[in-house]
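Worked example

This section walks through a single chain of length 140. The input is the sequence exactly as stored; nothing has been trimmed or padded.
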Amino acid sequence: MLICWDQWYPEASRLTALQGAEILFYPTAIGWATSQDEATNIEQYNAWQTIQRSHAVANGVTVISVNRVGLEQEGLMKFWGGSFVSNPFGTLLYEASHDKEEILIAEVDLDLQENVRQNWPFFRDRRIDAFGDITKRAID
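Given that input, the structure is written out below as tokens.
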């Protein structure tokens, strides 16, 4: 399980998968200011979903991302919901609505995950010799 802000970092998903995770769970509370324009809202939601579906592909795992719905801060903040389940190919198996609470039980195919990891050997082919700088902070 990775929590909220972890969803934006490929290192977190990779390290968790390398430690044996077969499913990555991302419980989160993310949304936007209600004063923000709709085009930006859509861009932000798509980026949020894309990064996590990318973790599924890069690590050969199912990703389950759970996000809340509703308003806070006297209506100034809207949580965008849109929880989803993605298979190891990044295919959406389920996507929740953006405005109501939902409960889903999703079946996960662990055999598919093993097949993906065998045929897309991203773990095996990692360039670990070139990753030394990954632990250094970027210079602004």
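What to look for: The chain has one domain: 4-135.
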